[in-house]
Amino acid sequence: MYLPPHFKETRSEALHALMREYPFATVIAQGEGGVCANHLPLERVGDSHLHGHVARGNELAKLDGAEVLVIFRGPDGYISPNWYPSKRETHREVPTWNYAVVHVHGRLRVTEDAAWLRRLLERLTDRHEAGQPEPWHVSDAPEDHVEKMLRAITGLEIDIERIEGKFKLSQNHPVANRAGVVGGLQQRAARGDVELADFMSQQDNSLLEGGRS
Question: Across residues 151-175, what is the average pLDDT?
Fold first, then answer.
């Protein structure tokens, strides 16, 4: 990943927070027929593992021991140069795209342990059902149905070897321009704009403090 110094994110808490808030990841590996990419929710377990599952027919289920690249994508959006106060002064600004991503490099381990899989499904379900008025639990389904579903999936454990973060959030601009981007996103309010504006503000203390440098 191309990683200029001002966009390089090394804070473990920021990287882990993005992985937690945006768990639907892309897993890339070298398969028998070439490079393959699959999309699935993953759970970070401690600092050294990611857990997930796929259908037994998925190519990842046949790649035990393979090196993988896992990509977690945060919010993103188009940035207009009209949002920069400096543009009105110099006209020397151009459009860009802001985004935040985390790349996890690791090694894939495949498991068919039914107890392991059930614990994973219970954790994932409880986490993502937590905001529902009446959360659904794995135990709500008939036991024979749960067992049938468990036989149809394979567990994935990814041993984390290295994590890279790129948060491209206008850090190469002065505070006034960054504040202008946040305001522009909030005003445009297209898909994901407010989310990106909030994310920028959370990552930038100067914006949270009202633009003081």
Answer: 96
Chain-centroid distance, C-alpha 113: 27
Q: What is the pLDDT of residues 172-197, one digit of tens each?
A: 999 999 999 999 999 999 999 999 99
pLDDT interval class at 42 (50, 70, 90): very high
pLDDT at position 205 is 77
- The 8-class DSSP code of residue 5 comes to G
Amino acid type, 91? H
- Output b/e per residue, 133-170; b: 16+ Cβ within 10 A: eeeeebeeeeeeebeeebeebbbbbbebeebbbbbbbb
Burial class (CB in 10 A: 0-12, 13-18, 19+), 71: middle
Domains annotated for the chain, with CATH where assigned, are 5-78+95-172 (2.30.110.10)
Is the separation of the CB atoms in 187 and 29 below 8 Å? no
| Residue type, position 138, single letter | V
In which residue are the tokens 């959360």 written? 135
Q: Residue 6 carries which DSSP code?
A: G
Q: CA distances (Å), 76 to each of 8, 18, 58, 106, 192, in order?
A: 16, 13, 29, 25, 7
What would the two tokens of residue 120 be?
């994973």
Q: Answer yes or no: pTM beyond 0.85.
A: yes
Scan for tokens 């379900």, then name that residue. Answer: 125
- Exposure string for 111-130, b = 16+ CB within 10 A, e = fewer: beeeeebbebbeebbeeeee
